[in-house]
Batch of 2 targets.
Target 1
Amino acid sequence: MTATVPALDSYRELLGPEVDSMRALARDLAGREVLMVNSTAVGGGVAELLHGIVPLLEDLGLKPRWEVMGGAPRFFEVTKAFHNALHGAPLEAPPDAFDVFRAFTAANLAKMKLDSEFVVIHDPQPAGLIDGRRNGSGHWVWRCHIDLSHPHPEVWSFLEPWVARYDGAIFSSAEFARQLIAPQYLFYPAIDPLSDKNRPLEREFIREVLERFGIDEERPIITQISRFDRLKDPVGVVAAYKIVKRYVDCQLVLAGGGADDDPEGSAVLAETRDAAGEDPDVYIIELPPASPLEVNALQSASTIVVQKSLREGFGLTVAEALWKKKPVVASAVGGIPTQVIHKHTGLLAHSIEGTAYQIRYLLTHPALAARLGEQGHQHVREEFLITSNVKRYVTLFLHLLSQNK
Ligand code: UDP
């Protein structure tokens, strides 16, 4: 699964002696088992992160394992409804949603091996697996990647009794934290600078990808890479592009695939196509689940990268674009402002019109666009690289060990 992911020493050029300090830090964790559990192996930021973190923990001498909980369309329909509701939307779930959630939790508990010393459960879908913890054994942490600042009360009351039993909860922003008995930790998500998604590409390959999709290299390219999800607002991106297009000749690329745990993709894709109409300068590209090189090429070829999310846990796509020194226009929601510091590492917007205004401004002010891109790259280097994320896990595991065992 992870053959292309480089081991820690490959980061030496970027990190220098930091690599040695990470190895020293992890020494006391040698041989200890870590289990990471989430709900999809491909698609979405959590799978992306785990692909990077697991091999690095292994290289540090730990024994990590990544398991994807089992689901089915019925379960993912419920968890997607919960996901939207936890992000503050109304709850649009089948009447037996809570029973379905409990039933899938029980079915997974019956077949999963959950006895690792450290168990990290990612997001709400597998949160109930804490029921499988035997007599308080091991160290269990709930890693919440979503913005929980305004959760739907009924969904949160349903999940909270499980969450309350973890030894700690990790959030991506201080603002997402809830009132919990367990200690809460702040971990920024991160990107892997050496992965196929983020490593520098040959100009020729980028050109080839543009050609494959029929995109014109000579005219500005505005891109949003995201699952076709209403909270990513692809229809809003089309509307913003249409405003910009009145003033500047440009192209719009909306590229994304689905995730195994996201059943809404095809409806949103159809809405996006409708919104785009017959405009030949709008490219709506359905990517196969694992297309890191295509994503990389499209981001690298972009004049401006947009992330017009209505809600966002963190938005790895933003960090990916900043790393590639792209000027980013993004909504001021969730974890995005941690990455896009307005007028320093990108531009923030609050509406379709605002997004259009900022895109247009950057298209006509290339020196500013270049400066934001450079500063964005530096910001990612300092805060959002996968190695920092791994270091945080190592530090947390040591802290948990020091507390009671
Ligand atoms: N992604 C991808 N292919 C796609 C759409 C997204 O590889 O078709 C990747 C994207 O590059 C990023 C992750 O999936 O690494 C999405 O993470 P993000 O935090 O932006 O959003 P999420 O999907 O988790 O809400």
Target 2
Amino acid sequence: MSPSVLVTGAAGQIGTELVRVLRKKYGTEGVTATDKVVRPGSGPGTIVPLDVTDRASVERAFREHAIDTVYHLAAVLSALGEENPDLAWDVNMKGLKNVLDSSAATGVRRLFWPSSIGVFGPDAPKMLAPQDAPLNPTTMYGVTKVAGELLCRYYSLKHDLDVRSLRYPGLISSEAKPGGGTTDYAVEIFYSALKSRAYTCFLRQDTALPMMYMPDALRATVQLMEADRSSVKLHGGYNLSAMSFTPAELSSEIQKRIPGFSVAYAPDQRQKIADSWPMSIDDSAARRDWGWKPEYDLPSMAADMLARLGSRLQTQKDV
Ligand code: NAD
Ligand code: SER
């Protein structure tokens, strides 16, 4: 029997594409997409308003749609979270606790909640940060992700809730724009390359960070959620990896395809956040436990992004 799914934060960078994937698998009726902000004409299709900081509304939505599987994506990301730490705490922690409590109260069976490379701080190894590296983030976003991982583990022990989680790297996608993260430059750069042939990057040219193309992130999410329960050993957050590159390396990959594209560098407050994160992470636990393997590397991601975004920009003037 198909699960009855609810997605929070469905109008965001991941939700826009994940809802489409889930609706293809389980049918439009089987996937209730929700978000606090519902903008007409954007997102994955029909979206129901739901503020995750409102416990009663979350529980009501779970009961009303007889939900057994939740993808909880609503959050405030790293850069926005440093500008507004109270908002980050409220949405990321209160929102997660409301979703966990409502899940336990209504009999939700399985919950997906994304963690992030933001769990790591300056004391984690810079190269191939291991699954069990120390988690001492220096951003409010990272604090909420570490606390969130602990909370997810607690609920999976205490309430037998099947919580599954991935520490996504920075995600690059051609559909919805990113919503306030430190890795957003790796999406913005493609829009600028195609629209104006020039980009000013807010990170230094030598800032290496772990990154992933959205099709791989979507595949990992579905693969983890469909994995046999006995193979999912971690309920906090699996390290997930695909590629690692600097702004200079990404620029030169784009320049191979758009000669004349120029990039300048003007690091801002987001540089400090990037400097606190690892350059690459080790995802051998995900590979071992449920068979994770990425498909896209830097050249194949850049070629596909330019092709997809290029055709969207040609057909949709307001992108
Ligand atoms: P996003 O910012 O694009 O989307 C988040 C969505 O949450 C937005 O549509 C926003 O309207 C919604 N939202 C905010 N406050 C809300 C509230 N109170 N109630 C309901 N909805 C609310 O984020 P995303 O990139 O789609 O990220 C989704 C999840 O994945 C987050 O937990 C994020 O930390 C995690 N993640 C993302 C990345 C990435 O690179 N995109 C990397 C690592 C982890
Ligand atoms: N892409 C995310 C951010 O920069 C990582 O969690 O906030």
